[in-house]
Amino acid sequence: MARHLYRCPLRWSDMDAFGHVNNVVFLRYLEEARIDFMFRLAPGNGSKSFSGGSVVARHEIDYKRPLVHRHEPVLVESWVTGIRGASLTIAYEVKDPDTEEGPGTVYVRASTVVVPYDFETQRPRPHHRGGAALPGEVPPGGARSRGRGRAGGADRVSTAPLRPADRGEAADLAAFLRRLVHYDKAAAVRLQLTGERLAVFGRPASFEVLAVRTVLLDDAPAELDRTVSAGELLELVHAEPEPGAPFGVPEAVTGPPWAGVLPPRTGWHPEPGLPAPDALRAAVAAVVAEFRTRTEALAPEERTRTALDAIGHEIWSRPLGDTALPVRAAHAAHAMGFLRPAPVRVPAASVPGDGAAPAEPFALRSAGAWLRLRTPYGSVAVRRAGLGAFGVSVR
Q: Among 106, 368, 381, 391, whose CB has the most other CB atoms within 10 angstroms?
């Protein structure tokens, strides 16, 4: 998916009394990026969608981390995520540029609904679809918008319903999706079908790991590989009158970059040294308590983002037990609900191609640059330290 990049300078007057960029100012940053996106690039691509003017109908904004004044500009990435007859949705990330060491820090995630507008008639007007698309725009007949619910019609649902093997599979899938949406309301998931197992890949926004949950199906379709809205899928699972009843698959969305960087399906080998389940949960609780104690011990004037990041990096980068797995991966598994005690019924929770569901409750596997912590509820996959740009962090 193409993204428009706009480097926005910071002004000294953007800061408020707390020493960071005021929340209202971020809307101005988004406006600058959006104007550059639509009125500088769009005409050059032949699009007339906004040549007659437009109005903003809606903003949604999530503040992830404080941004303080600096001389270097902040990067605003923007792209089109939804197109309707007389409106489109633009998503943004206000962040630091990515580096070889990993993805840049994200300060804000937001979206804007923009309506092409006829100021003579004082009415919205439809898009002109005859020219080339806007950068990042979903082409006609291609992937559709990432909506916020099932409302809006069956045209956003595929005709191939999925039937979970039992109520427990449907409930576990709903719990997994609910946690993803908790961290990011606009979360996407990639669905891959192998035999009777549907693998659901997600990336919790605050953790930058890959979380994986598989669902055992009855009457599985021949094939499925699609990136969809996690929120839409969750609503479809919940919308059925009976738990475990068939549910539709939302239309595809233009997936986030991580959806193209997935762990391998095969070639996983056991890794020794993983602590027992109780010890694993205790280790996570201990480092969470240590992080809280050390940060709360800082004097108010010392409690800067740099100081907090330094403490977090030192704690979350420690190896877990006698393994190469960073403790932050176990923390992410805890946040996703993967570390709770296993029930009597053990659902299939392995990555496709990895064989049958595990007999042991927890296991550590490796495949090339990847490490995977597997539990009865799902898996967390991370890259080994120093191998590639797909790093992990927990905030």
A: 381
